[in-house]
Write a structure and sequence with these properties.
591 residues; alpha/beta; Rossmann fold; nine-stranded mixed β-sheet; seven-stranded mixed β-sheet; 37% helix; binds NADPH dihydro-nicotinamide-adenine-dinucleotide phosphate; binds ligand LXAUTJHC
Length: 591
């Protein structure tokens, strides 16, 4: 197992990736060993067993873990008690992992598609470049299109890039990586074709313990066909099998529940990795670090000091080529129900008892279950219309050939949400998401209350809002965290302003990894913290389904806004109803 993977070598610090293995105080070599083990055999379950062993406890394991432990340490499986294993010598396991004989195959189903080309293959290459993939790995593309291995490699090679800050041996590394990519053409509903794939996978795996990750990068209507065929015909017999499922996870509570039921006919919950790529973004990961590792923030994190929280997503382009998909979902399902709501849950959750996946997800579910039902009057929807600027005409949403001319699908939405719990009672969480707006960005903006009896109010003029503290977590672009504080303008008078921001997050000269890199690595390691559990998903749909139904049944017409504008004015009225002024992504503090 290569130890130069950033995550591993960062083990000496406080990286969540190492702490989460359940042994926070362990020295860094232990963390690296654990990661090695995890990729070598049964993911974090073995690591958890090893961590348990380190604490001298007796761990109960399931068959997958047992197989994995058997494969790396057969003597550790006690005679006659196959499901009750005592792992008493943690160090042995670590050294065994170092010359492990396991392999991971990542099968990208839908390899000919947009997401595979744009995100998945490049992320896998970046992991390879950083030495984060296990020693023995193979990548398979699977789709109906006819392609040879060489053609797949050619297609993939066109999208691979090296990091700006790491270019050493880049071409060489690309060549090595491409040699480990293969292609299998097949139908999505053919057990036979997946059996053929299985044969090819076995040829690559040889006698090693085989671990298999399937990435469903395909339209949702064929998820179940693939899961059925893959689980029947090409799941691993002696290692783990995991499936990454892309959004959309249904389009309402019922269809989502049906999808979950369907998946669970063939997989157990632990094998299902529902991806929300916003959870893999650096600044979303940093949100918990900011809150829980800095004493200065946590005491302020409640209705007592926070006036409102804004979660803003904005794109400066339209649906471009994805109109067919988008029209069936709309911006509320595409962005709010998943990406923004997930951020809200992390922002608002109570302190989890540990950084283990289940502890974090338990806290997120509690937030989602405490949300006040969404009211139609707390929602504004919009749709972009054609606009001509500087001699260029930008299309309307309904100019997209795959979109019906009379479509009422929102490309913009703003909503006021509330959490009915003691911490957040009465605090508006305002969400805003839109396509074809004036700028591209995503941020979390926390506006604090006014200072009681503010001695300096005269020095600010009449607008007290401009003098309240604001914490901004800019998710993208130019990732940053900054705090707006009041200052005296230098000079003999007493005039204050908030121009000086305190940057709470130093700039690192490192290029930030793409969200898909982190999430793919997590899935390979069996780390579920950043993936959506089925009860989280149910709670998210429970919140949005009644609203979505009402919008559709009442055929509520979206407010039209010009392509490239700031969106419908209705969003400002909605914010004003709760005494909020939206932050502006474009006017302040750029790197
Ligand atoms: N693209 C993106 O930016 C994002 C995509 N997603 C999700 O990821 C998944 C993949 O997205 P994307 O790559 O854009 O999807 P594509 O539409 O590009 O589809 C991927 C592949 O699936 C096959 N396919 C397409 N339509 C059908 C169909 N009707 N029946 C059977 N097979 C079909 C095609 O392969 P072939 O014909 O060779 O079999 C295609 O190359 C989707 O679930 C999407 O919602 C999520 C976030 C962002
Ligand atoms: O999930 C989705 O996300 C993208 C935006 O992702 P980003 O990482 O580029 O911010 C969005 O364009 C797409 O509509 C949606 O399906």
């Amino acid at each position: 197992m290569a130890l130069s993977c950033m995550r591993c070598s960062a083990g000496a610090g406080n990286g969540a990736g190492s702490v989460r293995r359940g042994a926070p105080a362990a020295p860094s070599f232990v963390r690296c060993g654990l990661r090695g083990l995890a990729t070598a055999a049964a993911g974090c379950r073995v690591a958890a067993a090893a961590a348990a062993a380190a604490k001298g406890v007796k761990g109960a394991m399931d068959a997958g873990v047992e197989n994995a432990v058997r494969s790396v340490a057969p003597s550790k499986v006690e005679n006659g008690s196959p499901s009750e294993i005592i792992v008493d010598d943690f160090q042995d396991l670590i050294s065994l992992s170092e010359n492990d004989e396991s392999t991971v195959t990542i099968t990208v189903v839908g390899a000919s598609g947009d997401l595979a080309k744009k995100k998945i293959f490049p992320a896998l290459f970046a992991l390879y470049y950083e030495d984060c993939l296990p020693k023995h790995f193979t990548i398979f593309g699977y789709a109906r299109s006819n392609m040879t291995d060489a053609e797949l490699r050619n297609m993939v090679s066109r999208t691979l890039t090296c990091r700006i800050d790491k270019r050493e041996n880049c071409n060489e590394k690309m060549e090595e990586f491409l040699k480990r990519c293969f292609y299998h053409s097949g139908q999505y509903d053919s057990e036979e074709h997946f059996r053929d794939l299985d044969k090819k996978l076995k040829q690559h795996e040889g006698s090693r313990v085989s671990n298999r990750l399937f990435y469903l990068s395909i339209p949702p209507n064929i998820f179940l066909d693939v899961v059925k065929c893959a689980s029947i015909s090409s799941s691993s017999v002696n290692g783990w099998t995991r499936v990454i499922v892309e959004k959309p996870f249904g389009r309402d509570s019922d269809s989502s529940a049906a999808l979950t039921r369907g998946l669970k006919q063939y997989l157990v919950e632990d094998q299902i990795f529902r991806i929300d790529h916003y959870l893999g973004k650096e600044l979303v990961e940093n949100l918990s670090v900011l809150r829980f590792s800095n004493l200065v923030f946590e005491p302020l994190w409640s209705r007592q000091y926070i006036r409102n929280v804004q979660l803003i997503f904005s794109e400066d382009f339209g649906t471009e080529g994805r109109g067919g998909y988008f029209d069936r979902y709309g911006i509320i399902r595409d962005i709010m129900q998943n990406h923004l709501l997930q951020i809200l849950a992390i922002f608002a959750m109570e302190t989890p008892i540990s950084l283990e996946a289940e502890d974090i997800r338990n806290e997120k579910v509690k937030v989602l279950c405490s949300m006040k039902p969404l009211q139609l009057e707390d929602v504004v929807i919009g749709q972009y219309k054609s606009h001509t600027k500087g001699g260029t005409t930008y299309p309307a949403y309904t100019d997209d050939k795959t979109v019906p001319k009379d479509s009422l699908t929102p490309t913009f939405a703003a909503a006021a949400l509330f959490i009915n719990n003691a911490r957040w009672d009465g605090v508006p969480f305002l969400m805003k998401a839109g396509k074809a707006l004036h700028t591209k960005g995503a941020e979390i903006r926390v506006q604090f209350r006014h200072v009681p009896g503010n001695l300096y109010k005269r020095s600010f003029g009449t607008d007290l809002d401009t003098s309240t503290n604001e914490l901004v977590i800019r998710v993208q672009p130019d990732e940053a965290i900054y705090l707006k504080i009041n200052n005296k303008i230098p000079g003999l008078g007493m005039r204050l302003d908030r121009k000086t921001d305190v940057e709470t997050c130093p700039r690192y000269s490192k290029e930030i990894p793409d969200a898909y890199e982190r999430l793919l690595l997590d899935a390979i390691e069996g780390e579920r913290r950043l993936f959506i559990r089925s009860d989280e998903l149910d709670a998210a749909w429970e919140l949005f389904t009644p609203l979505l139904k009402e919008l559709e049944e009442k055929r509520i017409a979206p407010e039209l806004y010009p392509y490239g504008s700031r969106g419908p004015v209705g969003a400002h009225y909605l914010a004003a109803k709760y005494n909020v002024r939206w932050g502006d992504l474009t006017t302040e503090h750029k790197a």
